[in-house]
Each structure stands twice: as C-alpha cells, then as structure tokens.
Amino acid sequence: MENLQKLRQRIDNLDSEIVSSLNKRLEITLKIRNTKKKLGKGIYSPEREVELIRRLKEIKHPLLTDSALEAIYREIMSSSLALEKPLKIAYLGPEATFTHLAAVKRFGSQLEYLACGSISDVFKEVERSNADYGVVPVENSIEGAVTHTMDMLVDSELKICAQILMNVSHNLLSRYPKKNIKRIYSNPQVFAQCRLWLQKNFSHIELIDSASTTRAAQIAQKEKNSACIASILAAGVYKLKVVAKSIEDSALNITRFLVIGNASAGSSGRDRTSIVFSIKDKVGALYDMLSSFKKYRINLTKIESRPSKKKAWDYYFFVDMEGHARDKNVSRALAELERQAKYLKVLGSYPQNE
After folding, report:
1. Can you say how many angstroms the Cα of residue 269 is from the centroid of all Cα atoms in its chain?
2. Rounded to an integer, what distance in angstroms lies between the CA atom of residue 155 and that of residue 138?
3. How far apart are CA 314 and CA 280, in angstroms?
C-alpha cells in the first residue's frame, strides 16, 4: 500500500508539471496570436498543425501510440484556438453526422460548432463571416464525388485549406428488433455504400432518403417500426439500439472532407493542390493542357469532369496534384495551363496530412 501511495504521488507531481507546462504553452500561444493579428494573418494554420504532429510522431514514445498522441494534442491545439474568441466551425449537420465527427476530429472539442442544413449553407455561413471555417464532404472511396460540394467550389470564393480523411462505419439503428422493421431511412450515398447488405437482409423493405444520417436517426427515434443507417454516436444521442454493426459493403470505406475558409494553407513540405478548369473546343485540347504537368514532373492524383451547367456538353475538369501552388514547378505548370484554358481557378493548397 505504501508503494502504491508513492506511485500515485509521483503521478500527482507529474500532473502538476503537465498543467504548468500547458499554461506556459498557452501564454506563448497568446503572444503568437497577437503577432498574427498585427501581421493580418489568420489564427488557424493547418500547415503548422501538421508539422507539429509529424515532429511529435518522430519522437520515440514506446508506451504512447501515434493515434493517442495525436488525440491528446488535438485537444491541446483546440484549447489554443479557443483562447479569447473561440473559432466557429460550420458543418453539414445536424449533430452526430459523419461531417460533424470529421469536424471534431480536425478541430477538437473546445471550439464552437454550427450545424447547417445543406452544403450550400455551410459555404454561406463562412462567406458571411458567421463561421470562421466550414467542413463539407467531397468524396467517398466507394461512391465517388459529392457533386454538390464540387459545384459550390466553382462558384464560391472560399478556398480549401485542409482535408480530413475518415474511416466510415455504418450501422443499422432502431427502437425495434430486426423482424419488426418496415422502413429504413438514411442518406442516398449511405444506402449506396450498404447496397449488398441491404439486398441480402432487407430486399423487400422500403428505403427512404433523408438529408443526413442524423435526420434519419431523428425520424427512426419517433416513427413506429422504422430504422436508420447512421453512426454509433447517433445511437447514443437519439437513444436507438444497434440492430447490426458495420454493414457497409467494403471495409475500406473512407470519406474525404474538406475544410473551407478565406485563404489556402501555407506550404507544409508535403501538400496537395486542387484546381478546376474548362477547355477550349478544339481537338486535343485536354491532352495539350495536361501535358504541362508531365513537363514539370507533377503527379496528378485525381481528375474528374462535371457538366458546367452553362452550356450543353461543356465541362469543368477538377484536378488534384501533389505540391503547393507556390512551389516553382507547380506555379510554372499552372501558368502554362492558364494561357491555354478557357477558365482556370485554384481551389486551394493544403497539407497531405493523412
């Protein structure tokens, strides 16, 4: 017992040192914030955040996993961002959606969150300065692009300043046992990601689209013999039972979210740049434009087309590439592309942190 008391006392002493160090860290953070204000710079620096996490993971810590270390520092950084006036983060809501989970994963629990009813509303809240940043889904590894987000990126002046990758697990939730369920609510993309499981287990049950997984959970909470497909967090928030866990068709079900704000991130040394352009109507135009990236040895990680909605058979091309827009080779390639393009817009440069 005496040894146990001594060990606990050592823990208490270490905790006091940790709290003291955290307070000193916050004092320095305040000085940095005041300096940024004088220089007219934004408070949130995604590139610095990624650099800090990378450096910490390089330190040998045999008992502390990388994920635990990142979770601890996510809350430390969240507390730093919440000093004086907390940042407000708009997201596609309501509470307990996967976008909400992604926002908290990126910014921590100490900030203020604003639930929005649509992707358009997230953009509007940031554009009107009712929120400092927004979080929106942009693509899923199974079902592909979220076209509404892509369309909004064309029309909005906001920039992509960070990305969030999140493993998504879908669950069947209800107040009723499986045999009593007569209809299931969820987001259309979620239904698509669980198509095989639903065909096998509920082939004759009505599937009803909802704006979000959380909205589906709200309906399932109130409606008789109804169920929803949503997150485990939604089960706790809306007092639903988990009828079946992890019903997605692929275990590698990853959704990519974007953080949007008024400026791109600075260079982190390992970045991604997203652009959108349209081409002139001539033979070989797309080939000629993409050849600039090969010339400057720039790796393209994604290319996707979307109708411009301004003219029949007129398309926008969305391209992701490795590197920051300020990098010499990327800058040169974009300059060549701009001379050839009918329209070109840099959507943002941001860290490839995951």
Report:
1. 20
2. 15
3. 10
Give the catalytic positions in this structure: 255, 257
Nearest residue to 337 (alpha-carbon basis) of 258, 277, 268: 277
Q: Which two tokens stand for residue 253?
A: 């079900």
Which one is predicted more confidently, 94 or 313?
94
The Cα 81–Cα 132 span in angstroms is 11
pLDDT tens across 298-316, in order? Answer: 999 989 888 876 665 577 8
Helix (H, G, I), strand (E, B) or coil at 297: coil
Contact 160, 265 (CB under 8 A): no
Which tokens sit at 17? Answer: 């040192």
- With 0-12 / 13-18 / 19 or more C-beta atoms within 10 angstroms meaning exposed / middle / buried, residue 224 is exposed
Sheet holding 271-278, edge to edge: 300-307, 315-322, 271-278, 343-351
Each residue's pLDDT tens digit, 31-59: 887 887 777 777 788 888 888 888 888 88
Length of the chain: 354
User: Which two three-digit tokens encode residue 175?
Assistant: 């107040």
Residue environment code for 299-322, b if the CB has 16+ CB neighbours within 10 A, otherwise e? eeeeebeeebeeeeeeebbbbbbb
Lookup: tokens for 274: 């997203």
E-only strand ranges, the chain: 88-92, 112-116, 133-140, 144-145, 159-167, 171-174, 183-186, 206-209, 226-230, 241-244, 254-261, 271-278, 300-307, 315-322, 343-351
Query: Structure pTM?
Result: 0.79
